[in-house]
Amino acid sequence: MLINQLKEALYNLSCSPKDQIEWLKTNSLPVDELVLLFDDTYLPVKSQNILNYSLLKNLEELDITLGKMSGQQNKNIWSEESLYSNSMWGEIRILSQQALQDHSWPSESSL
Fold first, then answer.
1. Is residue 107 domain-resident?
2. Residue 110: inside a domain, yes or no?
3. What share of the chain is helix, strand, coil (3-state, %, to 5)?
4. Number of structural domains in the chain
5. CA distances for 102 relative to 1, 54, 65, 91, angstroms
6. Other CB atoms within 10 Å distance of the CB of residue 93
7. Residue-wise pLDDT tens digits, 39-79
8. What's the pLDDT at 108?
9. Domain enclosing residue 17, as ranges
10. Is the pLDDT of residue 33 over 90?
C-alpha cells in the first residue's frame, strides 16, 4: 500500500499545473499537500530499504529539492499561481516523472 501511495504522490507532483489544481480543488486541499503526501510516504518506504540505488537517488534528489522550497522566505511558492510560474515546480515535475519512469519499483508485497 505504501508503494502505491508513494507512486500516487509522485504522480500528483508530476502533473501539469492545471491538473494539480484540479486535484487539489477536488480534494479541498492547499498546495502544500502535494508535498506533504510525498513526505508522508517517502520516508516510511525509504526506511524499509527496498528501493534500488537509482530509484533511491532520484527520490532523494526530489526530497532535497522539495526541502529547498520550505521556509518562510519561500511562502510565495505555495500558491496555485506559483504552480504555473515558479521554476522550482517545473523541476519537481521532472524529478517526479523520472522517478515514476524507473523500472525498478518493488512490488507492494515487498513491504
1. no
2. no
3. 75, 0, 25
4. 1
5. 18, 8, 19, 17
6. 17
7. 999 999 999 988 888 899 999 999 999 999 988 888 899 99
8. 57
9. 2-102
10. yes
